[in-house]
Amino acid sequence: MIFSDQYQRVVKEYSKIGEDHKQYMFDCFRNHEFPLVLWRKLGKSGLFKVAAGNDKEHALRYMAAAYEGLAYGSGDLAFCIAPICHGAMAVPILAQFAKDRKIVKKYLDQATSGASVISFAVTESSSGGTDAFRSDCRLSSYNGTKILNGKKWHITSAPHADLIMCWATDDYDSLVAVLVDPKQKGVTIGDKLPCAAARTSPVGTIEFKNVEISPDCILRFKSGKRALTDALIGERVICTFSGIGCIKQMIEKCVYFLRNRKVQGVKLERHQYMQYRITKMQYALTTLEALSHGTLNLQCAGNNVDLESSVLKPTAANTIFDCAREAGQICATYGLQEESQFYSALLDAWGAMVGGGTEEAHRMIVWNKMKKRYSGRSLNISSDNIHIWEESEDLLKEIKNAV
Ligand SMILES: Cc1cc2nc3c(=O)[nH]c(=O)nc-3n(C[C@H](O)[C@H](O)[C@H](O)COP(=O)(O)OP(=O)(O)OC[C@H]3O[C@@H](n4cnc5c(N)ncnc54)[C@H](O)[C@@H]3O)c2cc1C
User: Fold this and answer.
1) Is pLDDT at 403 greater than 60 in this prediction?
2) Residue 259 carries which DSSP code?
3) Of 38, 162, 243, 306, most Cβ neighbours within 10 A?
4) All structural domains of the chain
5) For the chain, how far is it from start to end, CA to CA, in angstroms?
6) Given the CA of residue 122, which atom of ligand 1 is nearest to it?
C-alpha cells in the first residue's frame, strides 16, 4: 500500500524511537513495569500535544502513524494502550475545557508534555465493562458539595497515574467526566493487577470514598454518552495501527527465519506449507491495513464511524492473535523463546480482544447501527404463507430509540 510521505515520515520517526527502546521495553515486559523513560520521550516528541490541537485530521493521522512505528520498532504491542488512553482519549477532552478553566489548563499542559500520566476510568466490576454507559460511580451533591463514590476496575495506568478521568453518573443521571488527583483524600489505588496481557501498560483498581470534587473538575457535555463514545472510537481506531506495526515486525522475523533456516539441507522458504503460513500472515496484514486506513479516512472526513470502528477493533485483535500464532508455528522452538516476542504478542492480542470492549460488545453496537441503517420493514407471513414486507411501527420505534 502507498501512504503519504508525511505518514511514512512519522512511522519512521517512531520506529526509531521504538527500536532505541527495544531492550528497555523488553525488560519492562519481563518485570511487568510501566516504561516511564519511553513515556517521557513520547511527551517530548509531541505525540500527546498533537491531540490537543484544532486540526483533528492531522492529529488522527499523526497518532496512527506514530503508534504503528512504535510497535514496529519496539516489537511491543501492549504499551500503546497507556499513551492512547492518555493522549487520544483524555487529552482532547481536557483541551475542550482548558480554555476557560485554570485547573484543566494546568492538567492539560502536564499531560501534553508527558510530565503526567492520565487514567481513563470507565469499567466497573459491579456493572461490567460491556455496559460502559451504566456507571455505578456516583457524583452526588451534599450541602452544596460534590462528592464522588464508587469503584473502577482494570484501569490502565491506575497504579502510577497522576490524574484520573473518572466517568460517573450525576444527580440528573447524566454521564460526566470527573478529574481526580489520586492523592486526594478518599482515593485508594490498588497494586497493579497480575494481568497476563498488557504487561507494559499495567492495570489497577481505583476506589473513591466520599471524595470531594471541585466544580472546576467536573466536565459536563451536551451528551455524556456521545462524548464517551467519541473517545472510545479514538481508541478503537488508533490502537489498530499498533497492531499493524506489530504484525509487520512479526512477518519480517518470519521471512528472515524461513530464508535462513534449513531443514534436511532445504531452506524452509521452499516448502509450500511454509509459504502458505507466511502468505496467510501477509493476507491478514494487507486486509487489516485496508480496513484500518479506510476507517481512518472516513473518520478524518468527519463521518460517524460508530459501526466501522466496531467492525475494525475486534477484527484487528483477532488478526494479531492469528498472526502471532502463525509466527509461532513457523519459527517453532525459536518462536517459543520470549525474545521472539510472539508470546507477548499472543497474550497482548488476547488482551486486545477484551480491552476497549469484547467482540460481543462491538457486535451489539454494529447491530444497533445496522437497525438504523436499514429500513424499518418487517416480514409478515400470512396464514396462507404469503410473505409481506411492510413498515413496522414497533421496529421504527425501536430504531428511533436506539443509541
Ligand atoms: C488490557 C486491558 C486494559 C484495560 N484498560 C481499561 C481502561 O483504561 N479503562 C477502562 O475503563 N477499562 C479498561 N479495561 C476494561 C475493559 O474495557 C473491559 O474489560 C471490557 O469492556 C470488558 O468488560 P468486563 O471485563 O467487565 O466484561 P463483562 O462486561 O463482565 O462481560 C463478560 C462477558 O460477557 C459478555 N457479555 C456481556 N454482556 C453481554 C450481552 N449483553 N450479550 C452478549 N454477551 C455479553 C462479554 O462480551 C464478555 O465476554 C481494560 C481491559 C484490558 C483487558
Assistant:
1) no
2) H
3) 243
4) 224-373 (1.20.140.10)
5) 36
6) 11
b/e for 281-307, b at 16 or more Cβ within 10 A?
A: beebbeebbebbbebbeebbeeeebbb
- 393, burial (CB in 10 Å: exposed 0-12, middle 13-18, buried 19+): exposed
Q: Residue 391 in 3-state DSSP? A: strand
CA of 78 to the centre of ligand 1 (A): 17
Read off the pLDDT of residues 324-361 as tens digits, 9 standing for 90 and up.
Answer: 999 999 999 999 999 899 999 999 999 999 999 999 99
How many CB atoms lie under 10 A from the CB of residue 270? 11
What is the best residue among 180, 354, 364, 367 to mutate for testing ligand 1's pocket, by most ligand atoms within 8 Å of CB?
354
Tell me whether residue 194 is exposed, middle or buried, using C-beta atoms within 10 angstroms of its C-beta: 0 to 12, 13 to 18, 19 or more.
exposed
- Spacing, Cα 222 to ligand 1 middle (Å): 26
184 Cα–ligand 1 center, Å: 27
Of 130, 203, 350, best ligand 1 pocket probe by most atoms within 8 Å of the beta carbon:
130
Give residues (CB < 6 A) around ligand 1. 81, 85, 120-123, 128-130, 154-156, 197-198, 203, 351, 354-358, 360-361
What pLDDT was estimated at residue 71? 98
Q: Which atom from ligand 1 is nearest to the alpha carbon of 125?
A: 26
Q: Are 38 and 71 in contact (CB under 8 A)?
A: no
Q: Ligand 1: which residue has its CA nearest to atom 2? A: 355
**For residue 261, what is its C-alpha cell?**
533456516
CB 242 within 8 A of CB 77: yes
Return the ligand 1 atom nearest residue 361 CA.
47
Q: Hey, which residues does 219 pair with through a beta bridge?
A: 177
Nearest to 238, CA basis, from 73, 59, 37? 59
